[in-house]
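The material for today's practical consists of a large collection of protein records. Read left to right, the backbone structure tokens trace the chain's path through space. An example says more than a description, so a record of this kind follows:
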Amino acid sequence: MKSITLLGLLLLSGPLFAQQFSRNELSINGFRNPSIGLEYRRSHVSVRAGYYPTRFTPGITTSFIRTGLTYWFLPVGQKANPSSFYASASYVRGMDREYEGKNGLMGEVGFRWMVWKGLNLRIGAAVLTAPGEDLKVNPTPGISYSFFW
């Protein structure tokens, strides 16, 4: 256990994690994660809103309106706008299927890879809870383009 803790501290203190976030970022999210819509980040926190389609059952898409906050941490890489890990909390409102008209909460953790300039890809895992529904866990891939200043 001590060796795992020591390794973690060594990694966190190394130059790999020495990057800083830009002060402001506006993202146009084009595919699913965190939602098809807009996201604004200031320093380590972002706010977002949009349309969120997902498949809990193969071949059946369930749609939500999703809004929430994201905390960005552990920036990695040597690019001007680094890749990083994130954790988010969201309010969702079901638009169809068994979630129509239901409110829910979604928690998510993941990683955003800054591919080229503002182009970025995300992969994460989300947990959704809503009244009268089973807890759902699903992967959350995404693609976005960001503008920094």
